[in-house]
Write a structure and sequence with these properties.
Length: about 280
């Protein structure tokens, strides 16, 4: 497999609400390839550690994570690790992601097979890492996985580790801060979002594709709990868990971890509270 401008394994930073597209190219002379998502992906060189999605039933030695000694594996009933709706729908639910083959390799196209991957990260993936691997299958053999050796630019499998931005939302066409606060942020006061995005000139004029800052990020200090953080931020533990889907256990939060609290009220010292009501009047024709 080959992909233009990308190594055969790597990291892609994405934002909730923004469409993600990748074109994967496979070439195997003299026959075509079928390209598909790997059912339980594994990547050794995406980052400085091995990342994978394993079956709980077949993995007796899974990495422990979260709290209470729960294995990080597909089938444990919680969407954790690097799994997602396109690698473990059993735990995560089905993701609105597509992988469509638009070209099968043949002599006329130089035996280049191409698939297009499209996905929009949804609320609930913020702060997480999600692994996608695409593998090549021989068409003539009826679907045998290609077993070629990995080189600098080619591989039988290509993996991408998506790192979903924390505390960010990608706006759609026609969106307003009031609509975003109501639908995405569970009726949060839209003015708090406005004060966190000083580059926005008007709350009803949000450019499509704009990465919106949802709120401040707090670094967990020694002795902190979600309850104490919620009290400090004048919000609830439930709200913190909703805005930090990678925090799976309310009883355990790691020192140094980053917590998003979109409910922290603006203050003169920390946000542009000087923005006056005149700044928010509708545009004049």
């Amino acid at each position: 497999l080959e992909e233009s401008a990308c190594p055969n394994q790597g990291v892609s930073k994405v934002t909730v609400g923004c469409q993600v597209t990748h074109a994967f190219h496979g070439k195997s002379n003299p026959y075509g390839l079928t390209l598909r998502m790997q059912h339980r992906p594994s990547c050794e060189r995406c980052t400085d550690r091995v990342v994978n999605v394993t079956d709980c039933a077949s993995s007796a030695m899974s990495m422990l994570g979260g709290g209470g000694g729960i294995e990080v594996c597909c089938g444990n009933g919680r969407c954790d690790g690097v799994e997602s709706g396109f690698t473990c729908p059993e735990d995560c639910g089905r993701e609105d992601a597509t992988l469509v083959q638009r070209q099968v390799g043949e002599r006329l196209n130089g035996f280049v097979s191409i698939v297009d991957f499209s996905w929009v990260p949804e609320h609930g993936t913020e702060g997480r890492e999600l692994l996608l691997c695409v593998e090549a299958l021989d068409v003539p053999t009826g679907g045998q996985v290609v077993g070629q050796l990995r080189t600098v630019s080619t591989s039988p499998v290509q993996c991408v580790l998506f790192q979903v931005a924390r505390c960010a939302y990608c706006t759609s066409e026609g969106a307003t801060l009031k609509h975003i606060a109501r639908s995405y942020l569970q009726n949060q006061n839209w003015l708090r979002v406005y004060n966190s995005n000083v580059d926005l000139l008007h709350p009803d004029d949000v450019p499509a594709g704009h990465s919106l800052t949802i709120g401040p990020i707090y670094e967990v200090q020694p002795g902190d709990t979600l309850l104490s953080i919620a009290a400090m931020a004048q919000t609830s533990v439930r709200s913190l868990l909703e805005n930090n889907p990678d925090v799976l256990d309310a009883a355990q939060v790691q020192q140094g971890a980053e917590i998003v609290s979109s409910s922290v009220p603006p203050t003169p010292e920390s946000s542009p509270a000087a923005r006056t009501p005149r700044d928010m009047q509708p545009h004049q024709p």
